[in-house]
Amino acid sequence: MADPSSYRPRPGEIPDSPGVYRFRDEHRRVIYVGKAKSLRQRLANYFQDLAGLHPRTRSMVTTAASVEWTVVSTEVEALQLEYSWIKEYDPRFNVKYRDDKSYPYLAVTMNEEFPRVQVMRGHKRKGVRYFGPYTHAWAIRDTVDLLLRVFPVRTCSAGVFRNAARTGRPCLLGYIDKCSAPCVDRISAEDHRGLAEEFADFMTGRTGAYLRRLERQMTEAAEEMEYERAARLRDDIAALKKAMEKSAVVLADATDADLIAVAEDELEAAVQIFHVRGGRVRGQRGWVTDKVEEVTTGALVEHALQQLYGEETGDAVPREVLVPALPDPVEPVQQWLTGRRGSGVSLRIPQRGDKRALMETVERNAQQALVLHRTKRASDLTTRSRALEEITNALGLDSAPLRIECYDISHLQGDDVVASMVVFEDGLARRSEYRRFQIKGRAGDTQLWHGAGQDDVRSMHEVITRRFRRYLAEKERTGEWTDGGEPGAEDSSAGLAEPPVNTFTEDDGRPRRFAYPPQLVVVDGGAPQVAAAQRALDELGIDDIAVCGLAKRLEEVWLPGETDPVVLPRTSEGLYLLQRVRDEAHRFAITYQRTKRAKRFRAGPLDEVPGLGETRKQALIKHFGSVKRLRSATIDQICEVPGIGRKTAETIVAALDRAAPAAPAVNTATGEIMDDTEEPGQATGSAGEPVSTGAPDERRGQDR
């Protein structure tokens, strides 16, 4: 722990102007980002007597080793820069709302030729209209099922759509009139897009005019004695009203607004958000966060607004945002929201009426969420602390292993050998720090490092050596350092499956690959694997990292140089944590190994063309229909494909020529040319039935 006075800047060095500041630890990692109307006054608060600081603020300033700042012109610029740096650096001490789930949205893919209605999660895509979020995916499907009667928009996947177009037969929804079946040209692309736009308009709350129009059409059909058409319109109106009843009207004036409520104590805060569109609650979500310092309710609201609207633009930001307290100052936040929406946004506290009553409901939800979280968190914190303490005592460590790294080797009978590295911090998985390796072996070990002779112990030695060689390179780096290589390419020198794609300078505070050492290295295996890992660290001169192994058969913990294992009680929380770490490393390794194997099995002649990515390969197959037709095409014909130049076309032709199938085999008994669809390892009998040749199945085996 550092003494804040050792890096405290002199008061005269800090400007008295708006800006953004960053605290860094001893590894130059950014651990906290903040903004201030006056940098001088704000930073002075961090360097007062430690006894007067909030416990987590005290932990932050003693973890930090330096502080720096950037001056900006306005408070709006400070808000924007703070948000972008929090997203870029992911500081461990900043307020980060932990969303407990990926909320589902009802999405209409207006960016496709035939828009599709579907449930979507995750990052939002350009050209897709989203409605929600919803608490449950089944609620979306119930709503869509009702609306498809009136708006028969496509809901099928791309594969189902293509298959229906190929066969000329629509899917079941097309037969029961819940899809207009554009796949078989029952409706034109323009008319289908119009249906999708009407669906989206209805979901935005523009329901009154549409219902009145249907009622008018129903009346006209009845007057003209078209009773069947009138009955269909009557049923359509009933379906729409039933869909509308699923979300009760909470604001009579058809308001579009988001309501944000906060429940907090000294250590944590829970945020609840209700999304109201057209006067109806269309979605709800909630977050929980640790309070790093003594932040006001207004500051928590500001952070919630940043997370909620930081990636949003346009209609996703409503005209009105109702909050329990206003940020101080409120003008920069309001200007930022207006810029995100492109028009005015009202940010205010509801005082009376329906909006105040609805805000009280949101506040009750926030209070319940905080109580539930505290109940779970108390047990979780106690369990994790006890697990780390038990590991510390069992392994004889000087301090609790706050960062644990675990390594596992995976292969299939010696092929596709890979390794995984998973990271747990404070007893929780930190997935952004996970890494994958391709095991290359050592020069001169050709026979040993290929086929069934692959050695897990040597693989473990290699991966530990490579990982901590990178750590030493980062530690000793004085100037610019880069891994080289293209984004997404494999590192041929080190065999990384995910090489760094950024060039980091000494002043960067981004979470860097391999830059931070663990307190404990866990390997999946027994004494041989542990000895290999320890030998790798000794060869690199690293003596401040503990090593242990967890043997799967009896769940024994092995230490370097010990003839007997450490046996933890079966009910030990420390053993449970080590098992979770080991199992996660095994899952991550075997998933990567299976992915590599499947990719190898699917490899085709186009994969050998350098610089030809997946998008252009798909364009070639779509243009020609198959590799066989592509093989018979001329260079000029290949150049007609968008994105394919003449040089690339010549490379494609050369690659296809090299991979051309051999001349057809001739049956020596009959003199006939054998069918080229016969599988290797099979011969054809007199009746044309396949005859086994007794060749072994090369894919038989069990994953390790």
TrEMBL record:
Interacts with UvrB in an incision complex. The keyword Mitochondrion does not apply. It comes from the Bacteria. Residues 16-95 form the GIY-YIG domain. This is UvrABC system protein C. It comes from Streptomyces pimonensis. PROSITE patterns: GIY_YIG (PS50164), UVR (PS50151), UVRC (PS50165). Residues 208-243 form the UVR domain. One of its GO terms (molecular function) is hydrolase activity. It is found in: Cytoplasm. The UvrABC repair system catalyzes the recognition and processing of DNA lesions. UvrC both incises the 5' and 3' sides of the lesion. The N-terminal half is responsible for the 3' incision and the C-terminal half is responsible for the 5' incision.
